[in-house]
């Protein structure tokens, strides 16, 4: 950190800036909090703009090691009181470190240039915890990237980032994409689009075109090898009619009587790991890419 200033007032302009970024009001920046996310951001090559930390951070060996690493980063630093940290942080018991970093940007063409493989599409999901968990699972199961469509919760929402356990900083993400453009890229790269739906006997109530209900396959009987894009719809209503129309295939996960559906993050984990199993768990090595150029 090239400059470290001391801040003891909650009304300091930098405190207001942190809160503004945390609220998502600066789309080109991301708010990070906690030792683990700082470590992940450093290893992912994130562009740090500002770091705020308390003297208590050095009270643990892990915190002290992190602070030493952060001191080598070219960014603004602020030593703040615990009261100020509580005003900045989103958690009830802050770990004593937060940061503003450049937001990673990926275009659709950049993602698909990584090679047709396993892609995840989050279609109008609203819960940041679910989206973060899906990002974490997608990275673990070997997906090359994740795409969110318009009206999906921000993948860099602080809750989504925490739930992703750093995957949001490593897994290539395309956010707010037009559904038609995503479908066009999938067709161009010969990627099959597979949508997750409720069990066949319940599908007519979810499918706009009920005649397609007969095409739904049990997830273990579907071919999840080769270039595919798995589509997961909103928590309340499943995939949208538009996404349904773009899908090439549908799969379902069996459930015991009386259970209506799985949480979308749980369903994503089941399908992603079935895809990984069918592929022999041959994962491509993930290479951190932090393109923070503004688009």
Arrangement of strands in the largest sheet: 8-7-6-11-9-12-10
Note the total helix count: 11
How much strand content do the residues show? 15-25%
Mean pLDDT, all residues:
90
What is the name of the CATH superfamily of the largest domain? Answer: SPOUT methyltransferase, trefoil knot domain
CATH top level label of the largest domain: Alpha Beta
Q: How many distinct beta strands?
A: 12
Biggest pleated sheet: 7 strands, parallel
Radius of gyration: 21 Å
Q: In total, how many domains does the architecture comprise?
A: 2
What can you see in these coordinates?
With 295 residues, this protein is an alpha/beta fold. The chain folds into two domains: 3-102, Ribosomal protein L30/S12 (60s Ribosomal Protein L30, Chain: A), CATH 3.30.1330; 108-278, 3-Layer(aba) Sandwich (Alpha/beta knot), CATH 3.40.1280. The longest helix has 15 residues, at 264-278. The model has no long low-confidence stretch (mean pLDDT 90). It has helices spanning 13-22, 35-43, 61-70, 82-88, 108-112, 128-140, 158-164, 167-170, 179-188, 241-246, 264-278, and strands spanning 3-7, 29-33, 48-53, 76-80, 97-102, 118-122, 145-149, 173-177, 192-196, 216-218, 228-232, 249-252. The chain has eleven helices and twelve strands.
